[in-house]
């Protein structure tokens, strides 16, 4: 938990250093260390960061494997006929199962990202298209194995034979995180795709997913902050981006309040605070939050880029075209998520400049639109 506090206080390198020494001997240290690197990879989209995070997550999975219940050949044959009963596992072994399932899920996410990167580079004209179906199938298998493990662990919690161990809150929090994330994510798929996924054994219920995540967020477990972040993402981003319904801004504020009080300079929470103010229409307050977020840390520049994107739109809402152009220009120079989008936005803002406004040197809206 000390490493988590360091991370949430923007001391990212200190958090990684405190975890690294125990990654070979502790499943939770290994998982947390790999998760931080995965978050970095997801923000940078850098192929080397993705490869590094994938290798680290694979090592974390190997560490978790050491603590899982050992099976004999006879056990393996029996498991082909009857599902393995989790009721006879030790507390350490069921914790190993939940950590192993998380590793599988996160490795799958990185696999899908690795498949997407070549396609993305192709459209940028930097690489030939090679979608690598083998990697995609491997990712799908990891997702399914993770999903099945979460379902079995959830059944264990509901079982009358379940005995709570000393660290049961952390185990139960992990189950709620996984079950909640799967249900919520699957429920956002189009109905036709969801029916196909149900045919191969997946199911998603939005209300059940939200309930599981809410229970996980309110628990005092290691994963409560992850449940909170997922809910904040859903209420402030996913519902608006995917158009799947209205986000609950009041619920997002309630979830964020205790973390903002505990980590007043925490960049992650300042960013969500800015997003909430944006949704409430308090644009000046949102701008202040995003600027605070940028000032709070300098380790992950990619986090600044998320703020620049939001600031660009805030100044668009305020019709301050020069400031909006400034942030679009920063993104086009520093970030590689979507160069075409940034260039288009620069051209659009230049089109809004008045006759008395000085255009930035070297930029022409006609050339940019081309």
Strand percentage: under 5%
- Oligomer category: single chain
Characterize the main sheet. Answer: none
Q: Which residue ranges are poorly predicted, with pLDDT under 50 across at least 5 consecutive positions?
A: 73-82, 118-130
What is the terminal-to-terminal distance? 51 Å
Give Rg in angstroms: 23 Å
User: Helix proportion of residues, in percent?
Assistant: over 70%
How would you portray this structure in words?
With 370 residues, this protein is mainly α. The chain has three domains: 1-70 and 86-163, no CATH class; 165-263, no CATH class; 283-370. The protein contains 18 helices and no strands. It has helices at 2-8, 12-20, 27-44, 47-67, 73-81, 91-123, 133-158, 168-187, 191-199, 206-218, 224-242, 249-262, 267-280, 283-296, 301-317, 321-334, 339-352, 365-369. α3 (27-44) packs parallel to α6, α14 (283-296) runs antiparallel to α15 and α16 runs antiparallel to α17 (339-352). It is elongated. The chain starts with a helix and ends with a helix. Residues 73-82 and 118-130 have low confidence and may be disordered. Belongs to the TTC39 family. Keywords: TPR repeat. This is Tetratricopeptide repeat domain 39A.
